[in-house]
Amino acid sequence: MRAITVVPGRPDSLRLVPDFPEPANDEGAILVEALAVGICGTDHEIIGGGHGEPPPGCHTLVLGHESLGRVIADPSGTLHPGDLVAGIVRHPDPVPCANCAMDEWDMCRNERYTEHGIKGLPGFARDRWRIGPKFAIGLDPALERVGVLVEPTSVLAKAWDHIDRIGARAVWQPQTVLVTGAGPIGLLAALLATQRGHTVHVLDRAVGGRKPALAGALGAAYHTGSVSELDFAPDVILECTGAPAVVLEVMCKVAPTGIVCLAGVSTGGRTIDFDAGALNRDLVLENNVVFGSVNANRRHWDLAAEALTTADPGWLDSLITRRVPVGSYAEAYTSADDDIKVVLEFGD
Ligand code: BGC
């Protein structure tokens, strides 16, 4: 069967292997036919050699952590042949740490967790894969074209879950939400914010292209320019760019008792001249919280699947701006101007 592989740490080692071995039975009871994998910044980082770890004893890693497939067989009886399914990315560490022991693997404390297509586990970019029932999310048949968005949505469902938990420290009635970055993560963050009934603002540097209309279709206000120029102080900010200057600006901008969730990953290596004392003063005197958020546990995946099922299917479909057949994989992994989400499709 076909598989998209890389040699982690070796740039430009991306390959389509035509005769990759079938998934081993010990990868999980449920056998799945791949329909699609989504591509994100993490995949580009792995391809660039800056991230990724092969499974023990292997030197290649099958890519793909944003999955959508169709069940071929499930002897456990959890799902049925023909069901749509997405595979949870992260598996708990073997110790396990206190969080992984409670299935809160997104909060792993010893970093020995594994992740399909990223760290120590083969990914979903292969014709067939296997998954255990505990890590399989059955999806509504209506998500056939967009179910691949469940993984990025799960990351935002977790972010919102933690915003709620932090907010519950006092009276918490957030109204205004700012999302920085109108890529897939930012737009899905805005979707969840609108589903919660908040007044939503999206800020991105793109003045044209698809982003303003995608934000507008959610009923969100779209801004360009800098965060400091905005004439309001958001109660919640979801920072989805990872751009260092934006990260600093949002921390200064959030309203008193407000919450900043950092969901974008920066590359690091650049320094900025910045008044850290003034920021500290603001955060302390306003009881602000700034926190980082990554990955998602099963609860968040279920919330994400539900959120997508109730969203406008046309809007979700328009987030996927390129669908590339697996034979043209190199095109899929080459970024193009105005891409939002690029998906690699496995069907023939
Ligand atoms: C994935 C997460 C993962 C993170 C770090 C992201 O692209 O969405 O599930 O935990 O990368 O590996």
* Residue fraction in strands: 15-25%
Question: What ranges have pLDDT less than 50 throughout 5 or more consecutive residues?
Answer: none
CATH class categorisation of the largest domain:
Alpha Beta
Oligomer: single chain
Count of alpha/pi helices: 10
The structure class reads alpha/beta
* Number of separate domains: 2
First and last CA, distance: 13 Å
Question: How are the elements arranged and paired?
Answer:
Elements: E1 3-6, E2 15-17, E3 30-39, H1 41-47, E4 61-62, E5 66-73, E6 84-87, E7 90-91, H2 98-101, E8 114-116, E9 120-121, E10 128-131, E11 136-139, H3 150-167, E12 176-180, H4 184-195, E13 199-203, H5 211-217, E14 221-223, E15 236-239, H6 244-253, E16 259-262, H7 276-285, E17 289-292, H8 298-310, H9 313-319, E18 320-325, H10 329-332, E19 341-345
Parallel strand pairs: 8-9, 12-13, 12-15, 13-14, 15-16, 16-17, 18-19
Antiparallel strand pairs: 1-2, 1-4, 3-5, 3-10, 3-19, 5-6, 6-11, 7-8
The chain binds beta-D-glucopyranose.
Residues 40, 42, 65, 89-90, 115, 118, 151, 155, 294-295 line the site of beta-D-glucopyranose.
